[in-house]
């Protein structure tokens, strides 16, 4: 009798099933632009190595203090740093923000990234990554959240959940994971996949103590299967030692 094939062995099928199950738990997100591409870029720089609450506060303080991006670029760097101090690493972020604004002004002749709407995804991504200190995650956030492009941002939650599920290997690191997941996730699911994995990483698949007992993905999760076998083996050894 011929063995039946597991319908979830295809990576694309597994990804679709992962998104389906997580959205059954957390809801289906609807994409809406959060802010302009340039605002998104500066907000993303402020969000690095700090909490969302701190970065949102710093961005609000920046917009309240300065009337234009020109005023931000031309301000004394210390004044800008003092304004965004609540976002952490203020001195380095202030210098980077001014360098980015200066580069955009020199290349475009204005403080505006709306021209990216006319570029293909790869070209727009390369353009953003040519800016000072802008890496794949920041570029992807601008393209995905401000422009609705099927470009996947990989933060710590997306990376952790993806390698635990066995979609990528942990050793590749977050930077290379962008290209690997970009190639695996169907374009129409990229935004939903990103949001679902972030939500799951925050609520269930936590870094230190993942809540596997309430996870709807255990049968698809390499991490769970490897660790459940390991825990079972340790339990059997303890039983043998006690007998």
UniProtKB/TrEMBL annotation:
Residues 46-203 form the HhH-GPD domain. Its cofactor is [4Fe-4S] cluster. InterPro entries: DNA_glycosylase, Endonuclease3_FeS-loop_motif, Endouclease-III_FeS-bd_BS, HhH-GPD_domain, HhH_base_excis_C. Keywords: DNA damage, DNA repair, Endonuclease, Glycosidase, Hydrolase, Iron, Iron-sulfur, Lyase, Metal-binding, Nuclease. Pfam families: EndIII_4Fe-2S (PF10576), HhH-GPD (PF00730). GO terms for biological process: base-excision repair. It is an enzyme of class 4 (lyase). It comes from the Bacteria. Coiled coil: none annotated. Signal peptide: none annotated. One of its GO terms (molecular function) is class I DNA-(apurinic or apyrimidinic site) endonuclease activity. Its EC number is 4.2.99.18. This is Predicted EndoIII-related endonuclease. It comes from Chthonomonas calidirosea (strain DSM 23976 / ICMP 18418 / T49). The lineage of its organism: Bacteria, Bacillati, Armatimonadota, Chthonomonadia, Chthonomonadales.
């Amino acid at each position: 009798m011929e063995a039946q094939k597991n319908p979830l062995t295809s990576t694309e099928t597994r990804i679709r099933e992962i998104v389906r199950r997580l959205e059954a738990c957390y809801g289906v997100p609807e994409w809406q632009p959060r802010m302009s591409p340039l605002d998104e870029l500066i907000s993303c720089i402020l969000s690095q190595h700090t909490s969302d609450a701190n970065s949102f506060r710093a961005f609000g303080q920046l917009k309240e203090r300065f009337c234009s991006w020109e005023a931000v670029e031309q301000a004394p760097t210390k004044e800008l740093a003092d304004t965004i101090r609540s976002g952490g690493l203020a001195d380095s972020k202030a210098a980077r923000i001014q360098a980015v604004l200066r580069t955009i002004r020199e290349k475009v002749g204005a403080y505006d990234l709306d021209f990216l709407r006319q570029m293909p995804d790869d070209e727009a991504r390369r353009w953003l990554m040519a800016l000072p200190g802008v890496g794949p995650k920041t570029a992807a956030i601008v393209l995905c959240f401000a422009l609705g492009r099927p470009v996947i941002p990989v933060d710590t939650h997306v990376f952790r959940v993806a390698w635990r599920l066995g979609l990528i290997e942990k050793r590749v690191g977050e930077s290379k994971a962008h290209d690997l997941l970009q190639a695996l996730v169907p374009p129409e699911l990229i935004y939903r996949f990103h949001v679902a994995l972030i939500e799951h990483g925050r609520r269930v698949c936590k870094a230190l103590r993942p809540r596997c007992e309430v996870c709807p993905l255990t049968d698809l999760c390499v991490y769970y299967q490897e660790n459940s076998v390991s825990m079972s083996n340790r339990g059997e050894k303890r039983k043998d030692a006690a007998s």
